[in-house]
Amino acid sequence: MSTPQPSWGRSSGEVADLNLAPRPADHTDEDIDFGESGLGPTGRPLRQVPEPPLVAEHGPARILALCNQKGGVGKTTSTINLGAALAEFGRRVLLVDFDPQGALSVGLGIQPHHLDRTIYNVLMERDTTVEETVLRTCVPDMDLLPSNIDLSAAEVQLISEVGREQTLGRTLRPVIDNYDYILIDCQPSLGLLTVNALAAAHGVLIPLECEFFSLRGVALLIDTIEKVRERLNPDLEITGILATMYDPRTLHSREVMARVVEAFGEIVFDTVINRTVRFPETTVAGEPITSWAPRSGGAKAYRALAREVIAR
Ligand SMILES: Nc1ncnc2c1ncn2[C@@H]1O[C@H](COP(=O)(O)OP(=O)(O)OP(=O)(O)O)[C@@H](O)[C@H]1O
Ligand SMILES: [Mg+2]
């Protein structure tokens, strides 16, 4: 059976041909090293995570918002790579680009600025459906609801709508049975778009850069999550906190890691994402690290994260 062509007009093969970055030798030099102590990079003993069970039937989806109002902490990178790793485990995944910058779309090799339909149209026009707007990605079983700068207008236009905070949730409802996971890549703000993502989600995944100032602002984020839980979405929970851009060689990274575990305890994932140039490379390549450098430490880390997410 031939796979339907993605509506941006290229097969995934052609997308790969556009890659500018040279494909890396797939070496494993940045493997996650848990040392001999049995302690993970979080400084805690590693928890046993069961092998993800095979799924015979799909849906209804668990919706996770990747959210942090601080910019550049790894939200988009984690959305792409967690999504790709979940798809490798046989899950059907929809990635929702909910940032007018469209970085999630670009990271999957799609230039969103000339698309006729994006998430903006689905949110604002009653006769535009998610089904006719999603694009296939180079990862089997992973679709993308793309976005571009048009979405910034939605934030203003939604203000006068009835049920403005629930617009995204209403929009996703018709496709919830088609997927096992829907991952929403939020923009770095706590505005109306992010509140929509939190109102639509079952869980929030908070990427946190291992850097001194990263803890600032998390209290405000958690406060926002609690308000959304009280007022709009009683089932909302924090699925986990993901430490990103960790450099095991620096005392600074290890100290920040210790502070994060001290402050948030069990909800910090055992999986920690190391800082590596491989991630910026994958953006240029327009594909996830799981296919760009499948045996790299980064790919292994996102697979380990996917296992934890499935188990939670
Ligand atoms: N583990 C990592 N190691 C090194 N660089 C990384 C890592 N994760 C992400 N990056 C790079 O850091 C930059 C920011 O990452 P990303 O776009 O995922 O963050 P973001 O939180 O989505 O940013 P924004 O708030 O602007 O949407 C990108 O250039 C990305 O390639
Ligand atoms: Mg982003």
UniProtKB/TrEMBL annotation:
Q: Where are the transmembrane segments?
A: none
What is the protein name for this chain? ParA family protein
AAA domain ranges (all copies): 62-238
Q: Locate the region Disordered.
A: 1-47
Spell out the InterPro entries in the cross-references: AAA_dom, DNA_Partitioning_ATPase, P-loop_NTPase
Which CDD domains does the UniProt entry name for this protein?
A: ParAB_family
Gene3D superfamilies noted in UniProt = P-loop containing nucleotide triphosphate hydrolases
Provide the species name.
Allokutzneria multivorans
